[in-house]
């Protein structure tokens, strides 16, 4: 399936499913006596791009882990495209179109860019346990090349991962998250450690993703976050304390005092 076909298929799905990609209602996650997130209620529409911001320990990663199924919430419900997935294991959420990226790299260093993406496409398709080499007409090869292009790495498609720059490796991780027609992606600090030029490339890649793919981005770089998101949720001490457009958040007095003024990050 091409990216364009993905979009059409998603449009058809969108017409029959709920308009929300993600709905959290009163989600709390306790670690012993510590509540990492408390009573988080959050709705993200299909195709919406949301930034979740907050200082260290605000609960952003815990929120991601509850959405992916890595953590079971202590209380509250999580719905994905209208379906209650609160108790679903991670792979069931992946099957429904949820993906995430991690702060650490999960790439095969000895393989090329194209091979990494091809394997990711195979991993989420049927027949993935075959060890046969792909046939030249394997549709997943075409699909992999499209994803390599979507993350601006066509020039490096035959380069081994070990020879890519750090920024290019992060771009490749985005291609892996795009394998298998995702509908919603959780990006965990994709700009961390990138140079200004690499950040600009990242912004272009995220803004260029097909419109039906919504996402949440956790990002310490406000500049990147506010340029790739249409809505922003601010967290503080495990709770949501403000939501708004990038402009509203940027100009909010309380946000400036709590987050922007005091050496955030
Ligand atoms: N597995 C865990 N066991 C115990 N406490 C945890 C665990 N994971 C997170 N916490 C605690 O929960 C709180 C929220 O942490 P979390 O990592 O979700 O914050 P964050 O906003 O992602 O921070 P950062 O920006 O530093 O990644 C912190 O007090 C943290 O120490």
UniProtKB/TrEMBL annotation:
Gene Ontology MF terms: ATP binding
Keywords: ATP-binding, Nucleotide-binding, Transport
Keyword Nucleotide-binding annotated: yes
Domain ABC transporter positions: 22-262
Listed InterPro entries: ABC_AA/LPS_Transport (IPR051120), ABC_transporter-like_ATP-bd (IPR003439), BCA_ABC_TP_C (IPR032823), P-loop_NTPase (IPR027417)
Signal sequence, start to end: none
Kinase listed as a keyword: no
Annotated Pfam families: ABC_tran (PF00005), BCA_ABC_TP_C (PF12399)
PANTHER family xrefs: AMINO ACID ABC TRANSPORTER ATP-BINDING PROTEIN, CONSERVED COMPONENT OF ABC TRANSPORTER FOR NATURAL AMINO ACIDS-RELATED
Protein name from the UniProt record: ABC transporter ATP-binding protein
Species, as recorded: Sedimentitalea xiamensis
Lineage: Bacteria, Pseudomonadati, Pseudomonadota, Alphaproteobacteria, Rhodobacterales
